[in-house]
Amino acid sequence: MTDPVIVGVDGSASSLEAVDAAAREARLREAPLRIVHAFGHTPGHRPAGGPPWSPAGRGLEPMVEGALAAAEERAHAAAPGVVVTRSVVAGEALEVMEIESRSASLAVVGSRGLSGFSGLLLGSTAVHLAAHGRCPLMVVRGRPDPAGAVLLAVDGSEAGGASVGFAFAEAALRGAPLVALHVWNTWSERAYEGPGDPINAMVVDIERLREAEQRLLDETVAACRKNFPQVRVERRLERSRIRPALIEASRDAQLLVVGARGHGGFTGLLLGSVSQALLHHAHCPVTVVRGQE
């Protein structure tokens, strides 16, 4: 059986929107949907002598069950026929979702939340989950019912290679075109290859740099295009500031796919600044794809 799509819920409007999206993703993949609610304390915040979690003891069991029942109802309405399971798991939301991601094909969360998922995009939780989760992470945000192409942020990094194949597969699943967008500028690390001090380097031959960036884009697309001949691909090269250009391009996309760490990232840095900016500001859902460790 295909690994399930998992979605974290807490009863908030944002998490219910994530359930809708997760149910549709499960239907596309012909996969089951697992609805997860995390409830508990970390050891340092657990009441002395108390159990790791006890919604019944706090009178919260009806609320939790009600949130899960509402989420399951939404899932069936959004994608009839999808097999749905639900569970309350002991632990902090971050820990629970990270563990659940080990046996999932896709993890889905909303952009805002309550209880365990509060501040999902305001603090480090989404960043941590995108960086450490064991499957691609979709953050549901932006305009309702997004339509258009699948947008791939091409950065040419080895770590970003997994995102390319994922974006092609997503476009094929959706029957949508793929826009492979590579944004470059004279601050590109590739402009400083060769001897000399990169801090003081100056790009003299702009046209040569542009041609190099075009080759990078062409080679990135060619590597996967033969495996997905049915996907119509638009290669788009743009000289601009990277984050604003990708955010603007997301206005016309149904999904934005980005690697966890881009070209020139520091060793050990698991989520790049561009990916973080897109999680906060994109106009459509964003899926962060990590490479193989």
Explain this structure to me?
- This protein has about 290 residues and is of the alpha/beta class.
- Helices cover about 35% and strands about 20% of the residues.
- The chain has eight helices and ten strands.
- It has helices at about 15-30, 60-80, 95-100, 125-130, 160-175, 205-225, 240-250, 275-280, and strands at about 5-10, 35-40, 85-90, 105-110, 135-140, 150-155, 180-185, 235-240, 255-260, 285-290.
- The protein has a ten-stranded mixed beta sheet with strand order 3-2-1-4-5-10-9-6-7-8, sandwiched between helices.
- Helix 5 links the parallel strand 6 and strand 7 (about 180-185).
- Helix 5 packs across helix 6 and helix 7 packs parallel to helix 8 (about 275-280).
- The longest helix is centred in the C-terminal third of the chain and has 20 residues, at about 205-225.
Question: Which helices and strands appear, and what pairs or packs with what?
Answer:
Layout: E1 5-8, H1 13-29, E2 33-39, H2 61-78, E3 84-90, H3 93-100, E4 106-110, H4 125-132, E5 137-140, E6 149-153, H5 161-174, E7 178-184, H6 206-225, E8 233-239, H7 242-249, E9 253-259, H8 273-281, E10 286-289
Parallel strand pairs: 1-2, 1-4, 2-3, 4-5, 6-7, 6-9, 7-8, 9-10
Antiparallel strand pairs: 5-10
